[in-house]
Design brief:
alpha/beta, 40% helix, six-stranded mixed sheet, 9 helices, four-stranded antiparallel sheet
Length: 249
């Protein structure tokens, strides 16, 4: 099963806020033996957001969507999700209970709007302030605030996808190769790619600043058995060319 990320908000695209969700989602997935397959950014423009959501719903992937589920006029994610699916919006009874418990006598129609979701949605509990997110069609919509969003994502991963944790035979391993150019290692890379079709090679060079050493992060990812064998060959090949390498943490 593929996992995707959708990060929503004009403030991200304009630079008023910096996105922190992508790196955190990768971390939360990795801790459970899962990996992110793709990520998209979108603004708050209604028609564009509807089209983006139509495309992501069509993938059938598990998608975590961050941002735009508040009650202010610039928050259009809930409405756009409903339109993308051709569904009506309605106040979710469990969300209403949570919102009323949060605000008591200070509950307002505007606050209740935060519990209005596409019909058929399920709530995502919010341990920070009790205002839920919602899930529908493998899409999980959480707020843009990291203090709320990240624990809500963890809840979804553990409550709904626990059966997928550490199921896939997938690992990554790499070394740092010092003082080498990528071009000098291409024959070795080709050899590894041909010899280990069950693993994928990656090469991440750095641009050394003044007084710094040039380096390349060179590694393999895929099935554990293939990666282990490929890394033995990789390290031997790098050493045979006279380069020093160190295991990458």
């Amino acid at each position: 099963m593929n996992f995707g990320a959708l990060i929503i908000g004009d403030e991200i695209l304009s630079g008023r806020r910096s996105d922190k969700h992508l790196a955190k989602l990768i971390e939360l997935l990795a801790a459970r033996g899962l990996k992110l397959s793709w990520a998209r950014y979108a603004g708050d423009d209604g028609p564009c957001l509807v089209e983006t959501l139509r495309q992501t719903f069509a993938t059938g992937d598990v998608v975590f969507s961050f941002g735009g589920i508040g009650a202010t006029p610039d928050d259009r994610t809930r409405q756009s999700a409903a339109e993308a699916l051709g569904l009506e919006l309605a106040l979710h009874p469990e969300a209403e209970v949570e919102i009323r418990a949060r605000f008591g006598d200070e509950v307002t129609p505007e606050r209740l709007q935060m519990g209005v979701y596409p019909v058929g949605s399920e709530i995502i509990p919010n341990g920070y302030n009790r205002i839920p997110g919602f899930s529908i069609r493998q899409h999980h919509f959480v707020p843009g605030f990291p203090v709320m969003a990240w624990q809500m994502v963890e809840w979804v991963l553990d409550a709904r996808y626990g059966h997928l944790h550490h199921v896939e035979d997938y690992v990554e391993a790499a070394v740092t190769v010092w003082d080498a150019h990528e071009g000098q290692l291409i024959p070795l890379m080709r050899e590894l790619t041909a010899a280990f079709p069950g693993a994928t090679l990656f090469s991440l060079p750095t641009i050394a600043g003044e007084g710094e050493r040039r380096s390349i992060e060179l590694g393999m990812k895929g099935r554990a058995q293939d990666v282990e064998a490929a890394m033995i060959r990789l390290k031997a090949g790098v050493a045979a060319q006279g380069y020093v390498w160190e295991d990458k943490a």
